[in-house]
Amino acid sequence: MIIWVAEVTAKALGKENTYVATDDKRISDTVRRSGFKSILTSEKAMTGTDRIAEAARTIDADIYINIQGDEPLLDPDDIKKAVAAKKKFPKAVINCMCVLGSDEDPSNPNIPKVITTEDERLVYISRLPVPGSKSIDNYPKTFWRQVCIYAFSGDELNAFSGFGRKGNLERIEDIEILRFLELSIPVRMVKVTSGSKAVDVPEDVRAVETLLRAR
Predict the structure, then answer these.
(1) Cβ proximity of 175 and 122 under 8 Å
(2) Phi, psi (rounded to 5 degrees) for 66
(3) Residue ranges covered by each domain of the chain
(4) Which residues contact 5 (CB under 8 A, 6 or more apart)?
(5) What angle, rounded to 10 degrees, do the helices at 76-88 and 2-13 form?
(6) Cβ atoms < 10 Å from Cβ of 56
C-alpha cells in the first residue's frame, strides 16, 4: 500500500520530490528497494504531521505536501490542487475534502466530517455527523469528509511540532489538523474528487482492493 501511494504521489510531484517518512526500518527498506527515497524519523512523533515536521527539517522546500500512506486511491490531480491552493493562500494550511459517498455512514467515527465557511475556510472537523440540526427540515443533504492531503510551509510545521503536545480538541477527536486551529493558524479546505477511500481499519482493505480492480 505504501508503494502504491508513493507511485501516485510521484505522478503529481515527481519521483525526485517524493519521500516516505517512517520510524519503521522495514518500511524504509521496502521503499528504498522500490526506488523511492525514505527518511527514517524518530519514534517520538505524536502524529503524522509531527513526523512530517521532523522530516521537513532535512529537506529545503517552500511547500511541504503530506500524503498519508493509507490513501492508495488518491488522484494525482487532487495533489496538484493542494499545491495550487497553497500557492494562492500561502498564509494558510491546506487540507482537502470531498462529498461523503452514498455508501458511507456520516455516523462512522472513522470518517472525519468537515464544516467550513461558505468560502471554504475550516471551522471544525469531527468524528460525529456534523453539522447537526434540531430540525429534520434543516438536516444537511450533503456531508463533507476529510481527504488526507495537506500542504504546509516550514514555519507552519515548526509551529505545529513546537506546541509540544496535542491540543485539547485534537486529543478528544484524534484529528491532528485541529492543532492548527488551537494555534490560530487558518486552514483552507480544497474540494477534490470523490472516490478516495482510506484504509482506516483492516475491514477497509477488501473494499479498497475492489475499487482498485475496477480502475
Answers:
(1) no
(2) -105, 115
(3) 62-214
(4) 67, 68, 69, 70, 71, 72, 74
(5) 50
(6) 22
Q: Number of C-alpha atoms within 13 angstroms, CB side, residue 106? A: 17
1-17 residue pLDDT tens: 889 899 999 999 999 99
| H or E element, residue 95 | strand 93-99
The CA distance from 38 to 176, in Å, is 23
Class of 62-214 in CATH: alpha beta
pLDDT of residue 206: 78
Amino acid at 154: G
pLDDT below 70 — which residues of the chain?
A: 194-201, 208
8 Å CB contact between 22 and 5: no
Give CA–CA dist 174/193, Å, rounded: 24
Determine the distance from the C-alpha atom of residue 6 to the mean position of all C-alpha atoms in its chain, rounded to a whole number.
Answer: 14
Contact 69, 174 (CB under 8 A): no
| Residue 18, φ and ψ in degrees, nearest 5 | -105, 125
Q: How far apart are CA 102 and CA 41, in angstroms?
A: 38
* pLDDT value of position 39: 95
CA-to-CA distance for 202 and 204, rounded, in angstroms? 5
Phi then psi for 127, rounded to 5 degrees? -85, -10
